[in-house]
Amino acid sequence: MRWQRRQLLSNLALLLSGRVGANSGCTAAGISGGGAAAAKADGGRSGGMQQLQRLREGDVRLYLVRHGQTEWNNEGRVQGRSDIDLNDRGLQQAVFLADALADLPIGLVASSNLKRAAVTADTVHQRHSVAPRARSGDFAEVCFGDLEGAKVANVREDMRAIYRAWSMGDGDVPFPGIGGETYNQAVARGRAGLRKLGVLPSESAAARSPRHVAVVAHGRFNLVLMSALCADEATKAQLLCATSQGNTCINVVDVSADGACSIVALNMLDHLPQAMR
Question: Nearest 5°: phi and psi at 188?
Answer without folding.
Answer: -60, -45
